[in-house]
Design goal:
Elements lengths: L2 H4 L2 H16 L5 H26 L4 E5 L12 E5 L1 H20 L14 H18 L3 H19 L6 H32 L4 H8 L6 H17 L8 H8 L2 H27 L7 H24 L4 H21 L3 H32 L15 H16 L5 H16 L3 H25 L31 H16 L6 H12 L2 H7 L21 H23 L6 H24 L4 H22 L1
Antiparallel strand pairs: 1-2
Helix pairs in contact: 2-3, 2-5, 3-4, 4-5, 4-11, 4-14, 4-18, 5-6, 5-11, 6-7, 6-11, 7-8, 7-9, 7-10, 7-23, 8-11, 9-11, 9-23, 10-13, 11-13, 11-14, 12-13, 12-17, 13-14, 13-16, 13-17, 14-15, 14-16, 14-18, 14-19, 15-17, 15-18, 16-17, 16-21, 17-21
């Protein structure tokens, strides 16, 4: 079979697996379900690895059901295999494999629930994410996006016996569904204008029209659904509440790859649909999205530092880094796209590992509260503790981790656009990495002053229910082996010699409308970049230096938080008073904005849509 023939199987394999578990999962013992879902997930990894190898020779398309275009027109559904899209689907499959192995002995299913329920939902989640990464049809992108969204709501509220996951899932579902309706209205406007649903076809037809209010409105509405899933400010309020209550293997997928798909979708839709004549000017898109990314990165970092609930802390760290991913892709060039792809790869390994290690704490101590866990995990300091600290260093951008290399390359690309943008990367990485290192030192080593509760309203994590029914058991080996493998992958992505060359080529193809149109049957064949095309710069002195700076700042911030309260003297007291004043004037209002109330989240969603409409209309 050729690569185009295999492409639909990347979606069909997990769909068939989900159907199998839904049908016979109740008849299988738990161990059989675990083994079967692992084999099934591994099969999709092998398939997508073969497709990624084929995609590096040039993009290809598969018309589902054989409904090929005639004279450039088509009613068929097309899947497009370009290196970046297939690579993202491969990352999805790898994280799904990690999540199901991690969950081998994680859940204690109630007697009334089938042991096949979780595997079925996870495979359905994988099918939605892979389909979204590969589809070349705008309406089917919406369908796949909503498929993974609906499954994500169910997985977030998986522990139905506890009302808190249900509340988090409800907020997640309502906010993202409203944003999805916005996207659907935008797709309807584009269909009314062009009579097409394929991305390449819409882009070709828009070239015959001038940019008007309908085009701008459609762009903003489609973008709303994607940026909401990506948790961009002010669409981000659902994410910390969902991550705080979702089962740990689910958090590994939500934070490791699902929100990044929103950034990928925004970039894919712009480059394919709106980047040509009759679309949205590149300068407007670049300016607005870079500003949104910077705001998201800084706000996420600030809120990350303030958290004591470890899952919420990691969730705000994800928000912050996704802001950096948006900055990289919003540069609208091949270098930015390739650098962001590597950053996403390294971040996925580190963040999924950190959530997995947080699950170890919940498994052993029934808590994810940084203050309440002070010094309680000392017996795990040479296993989970060391890995948690390594995850913090990777988040901070320490060479040679892949997250650090992706950060360095993104900084270089961003600095060519605006000279001060690298400072945003350094500050964001330092603050989020410092929060993780502070937590590692407190929980696994009992370092620093004993933390005291503040008078500010804080979300605690000391009343969480363990997701197992056997407290005090030894830590299951998969729960430590999977984070170790993820961190090793994060390290490997920063040192593999051929990776940057492949990503440079992937970025070039991703930003080439002509190549995508040719693969989708909307243009003449093109000469793809040779496999020996120049790669990204890799590690440079400047990139390594900025990575070391952000890491040292992260260590300094963590040390200040741990031992600052023990310092005496007038100067130390003044600094503490200044910090308390700043926290009261700045952080407390931000906490109130993150109220968790559904009505507030919906109001901010509507506000964000209005602001984007006004700004893009003014800049068209």
């Amino acid at each position: 079979m050729t690569a185009p023939d295999l492409l639909p199987l990347a979606v069909a394999v997990p769909l068939l697996g989900a159907a199998l578990f839904a049908a016979v999962g109740r008849l299988l013992p738990r161990r059989a379900c675990d083994v079967l879902v692992t084999v099934w997930a591994l099969a999709d990894v092998v398939l997508l690895a073969a497709l990624w190898r084929a995609a590096n020779r040039g993009p290809f398309a598969s018309w589902v059901g054989g409904w090929r275009p005639r004279n450039g027109e088509s009613v068929g559904i097309v899947l497009v295999g370009d290196p970046l899209g297939v690579g993202l689907a491969l990352l999805v499959s790898l994280l799904v494999l990690a999540a199901v192995v991690y969950a081998w002995r994680y859940f204690a299913e109630p007697p009334t629930r089938s042991p096949g329920t979780f595997p079925a939902l996870v495979l359905l989640f994988e099918a939605g994410m892979c389909g979204f990464a590969l589809t070349g049809d705008l309406f089917n992108a919406f369908v796949f996006f909503e498929l993974m969204g609906a499954v994500a709501y169910a997985l977030t509220g998986y522990r139905v016996e506890d009302p808190r996951p249900l509340q988090g899932a409800l907020t997640f579902g309502v906010v993202n569904s409203l944003a999805a309706y916005c996207s659907l209205m935008g797709i309807a406007l584009l269909y009314a204008r062009t009579g097409e649903l394929g991305m390449a076809q819409i882009g070709r037809h828009l070239a015959a029209h001038r940019t008007d209010t309908l085009t701008v409105t459609a762009f903003v509405l489609v973008l709303t659904g994607l940026l909401t899933k990506a948790a961009m400010v002010p669409f981000h309020l659902w994410l910390p509440d969902a991550h705080a209550v979702a089962p740990t293997p689910v958090c590994m997928l939500l934070s490791g790859v699902m929100v990044e798909l929103g950034v990928y979708g925004a970039a894919r839709v712009y480059w394919t649909v709106f980047a040509g004549p009759g679309g949205i000017p590149a300068g407007a898109v670049r300016g607005v999205l870079v500003a949104a990314g910077v705001l998201t990165a800084l706000l996420g970092a600030l809120m990350c530092w303030q958290q004591r609930h470890i899952k919420r802390m990691l969730a705000f760290s994800t928000i912050s880094h996704v802001g950096l991913f948006l900055v990289g892709t919003a540069l609208l060039d091949a270098h930015g796209a390739a650098a962001t792809a590597l950053y996403v790869l390294g971040h996925a390994g580190a963040k999924a590992a950190l959530f997995g290690l947080t699950g170890v704490l919940l498994d052993q101590y029934g808590s994810v509260d940084e203050h309440g866990l002070y010094g309680r995990a000392r017996e795990l300091r040479w296993s989970a503790g060391v890995m948690f600290a390594l995850g913090g260093l990777a988040v901070a951008g320490l060479p040679p981790f892949g997250a650090g290399l992706g950060k360095a390359l993104s900084e270089h690309a961003a600095g060519d656009f605006l000279g001060w943008l690298p400072a945003v990367f350094v500050v964001t990485s330092a603050v989020t990495g410092g929060a993780v290192l502070r937590t590692a030192a407190r929980v696994f080593a009992g370092a620093g002053a004993v933390p005291h509760d503040s008078h500010q309203a804080e979300t605690r994590g000391d009343d969480e229910e363990p997701e197992v029914r056997d407290p005090g058991r030894p830590v299951p080996r998969p729960m430590l082996a999977v984070p170790a493998a993820l961190l090793a992958a994060c390290l490997a992505s920063g040192v593999l010699p051929g990776l940057t060359a492949g990503l440079a080529r992937a970025g070039t193809l991703f930003t080439s409308r002509a190549d995508y149109f040719a693969a989708a049957g909307q243009g003449p064949p093109t000469a793809f970049p040779p496999l020996s095309a120049p790669s990204l710069a890799g590690w440079t002195g400047e990139g390594a230096l900025l990575g070391l700076v952000s890491t040292l700042v992260a260590l300094a911030l963590a040390a200040t938080a741990l031992w600052g309260p023990l310092l005496g003297g007038r100067g130390a007291r003044r600094l503490r008073d200044l910090a308390a004043t700043g926290s009261h004037r700045l952080v407390l209002p931000l906490r109130r904005l993150h109220s968790g109330r559904l009505g507030d989240n919906v109001a901010w969603l509507a506000t964000g849509v209005g602001v984007l409409l006004v700004v893009f209309t003014a800049l068209r």
